[in-house]
Amino acid sequence: MDHSYRAALDGQNGGKNSGRNSRPRPGFAAPYRPADPEPLPANQPDAASRIFAFVDDLFFMAKIQETARKLNVKVEFMKTDKDLAERMKQNREGTPSLLIFDLNNAGAKPLTTIPKLKAKLKKSVSIIGFLSHLQGDLKMKAVEAGCDTVMPRSAFSQSLPNLLRRYGMEEEEEYIPQPV
Questions:
Q1: SS3 content of the chain, % helix, strand, coil (to 5)
Q2: The model's pTM
Q3: Domain residue spans in the chain?
Q4: Cβ pair 131, 153 in contact under 8 A
Q5: What pLDDT score does 172 carry?
Q6: φ/ψ bin of 92: left (φ > 0), alpha (ψ from -120 to 50), beta (otherwise)
């Protein structure tokens, strides 16, 4: 079979050496990568944390820490509700704005801890839990326990920058993003 047509198409779409990354083929869009959110203004080093996470999964701890670092948001990791109560006494500046629970974290006992924290902190704090998308029963129990939002791990990972940005800013200041 004669393949000389490939030599004639060289440099055009479909040619052997047309450079696969030079431009998208007709009918195929270029890959979409969402822009990283703009970081918040830098906090003082001694600023109180407003976001606390009950996460023991090292992968998610690293993901949360790295995202928080990029956004200039302070996140503290807690093991139990007693740790949180002690930390809040030290803060004295106010209650947290967000509590993040890995609903599979047996050490934090989320289904017993969440109702206690919800009763203590009232509506001043949002509680977000994440779990495997296959755990429908656990999701319902977490909502009944007082979680404001329960989402699969993948959705949590995707929305993490926006969550940290939203709950990480100081209450007094209103953040207005700058046009690009």
A1: 40, 10, 50
A2: 0.69
A3: 51-168
A4: yes
A5: 44
A6: left
